[in-house]
Amino acid sequence: MKHFTAFILAIIFTFTAVFKANAQSPETIWLTASTTAYKTGETVIVTVNAISGTLVQGFTFQIRYDPACLQPVNATSPISGMNGLSLPQIDGLVDATFASTTPQTVNGVLSEVQFVTLSGCQTNLMLESAALAIRDESGFAAPLAGVTVGEKNIALNIDKAIGTSATQPVSGTPLILGEVPAPPTSSFPDWTLILLAILLGGGVMFGVFKLLQKGETSASKKLANSLVATVQIKRGPEAGKSFPLHKLPCRIGRDPRNEICLNDPFVTSQHAKIFTANNDYYLMDLGGETFINGMAVKQSSAVLKPGDMVRLGKNVFFTFAL
C-alpha cells in the first residue's frame, strides 16, 4: 500500500511540474499600468512588457482605446537602438512599430505609451495585438513564433474633476501619436456662455468694421506679418505658446537673455539657435542634445522646413512653421 501511495504521489508531482513549466511561456508580451484612477487632463502611462529568450530586432503592438475618454500622445522604448517608425494612426487605435539594426535582449519594458485623459468616464485599454520581430535566414523581418500575449486589458476610472496637467519625461526619441490636447477648463453656467457669445459677436463686428477702415497698405502689412516664421512649443515649460521669429538669429536656451527662454533641466543655457542663409532657415546645435525629426544635430546646423519636429534635451519639443 505504501508503495502504491508513493507511486501516485510521484505521478501527481510529475504532472504538476509539467503544468507549471507549460504555464509560463518563454516568449510573452503583456500590458500594465502603475495606477488606474485619474482626473481629467492628467497623463496616463501604460507599459507594454515582454520576456524573450531570443534576441529581437523589433516589435509591434496595437492598443484599442476610447477616443472620447483618451488622447494618445507618444510612445517610447527604453531599449537601446530601438527607433519608432511613423505610421498613419486610426482614431481609437494606437498602432506602434519599433525596429533596431542590431539584435537586442528583451526582458522587461518594451515601450511606454502616454495618453491624456479628456473627460470623466470609465473605460478600458486593450492590447489588441503584439509581436516580436527577428531577421530570418533571407535577411527579412519576420514575427517570432510561439509568442503568447498575457494581460491584455486595463480598466481606467477617470474623474470629471480637473486634475493637474504635467509634462512627463520620456526616454529616447518619442514616436508622436497625436497632438497634446489643450488643458481642460471648468464649465460655466449657461447665462455666462450666452453673455460671452454676445460680447464675442459684438467684438467680431467691431473688428470687421475696423478692418474695413484700413487701406490696402494695412492689409499688405498684415499679410507680410502672417508669413513670419514661428516656433510652436508642443511640450515643455512653454507648451502651447508660439514665438514669431521677428529677430534672427534667434537663440534658444535656459538663460533668460535668449530670445526664447525654456527653463527645463535638460536644456542648456545656450542650447541652439535659428538663423537664415540663402533664403533658407537653419537650426544650429550649440552643445546640447538637439534632434530634427529624430535625427541628431551635433554641433552643426541643418535646414529647417515647415512641419519639422525638433527636440531639445529630453522633454522640450517644438515644430517649425511659416
For the terminal residues, how far apart are their CA atoms? 90 Å
Question: What is the helix tally?
Answer: 3
Average pLDDT, rounded to a whole number, is 83
Low-pLDDT sequence parts:
8-24, 219-225
Using only C-alpha atoms, the radius of gyration works out to 26 Å
The SSE order reads HEEEEEEEEEEEEEHHEEEEEEEEEEE
Q: How many strands appear in the DSSP assignment?
A: 24
Class derived from helix and strand content = alpha+beta
Summarize the main sheet.
Answer: 7 strands, mixed
Helix content: 10-25%
Shape: globular
DSSP strand content? 35-45%
What keywords describe this structure?
alpha+beta, single chain, six-stranded mixed β-sheet, 322 residues, 3 helices
Sum this structure up briefly:
The chain is α+β, with helices and mostly antiparallel strands.
Question: What does this protein look like?
Answer:
The protein has 322 residues and is an alpha+beta fold. 18% of the residues lie in helices and 43% in strands. The N and C termini lie far apart (90 Å).
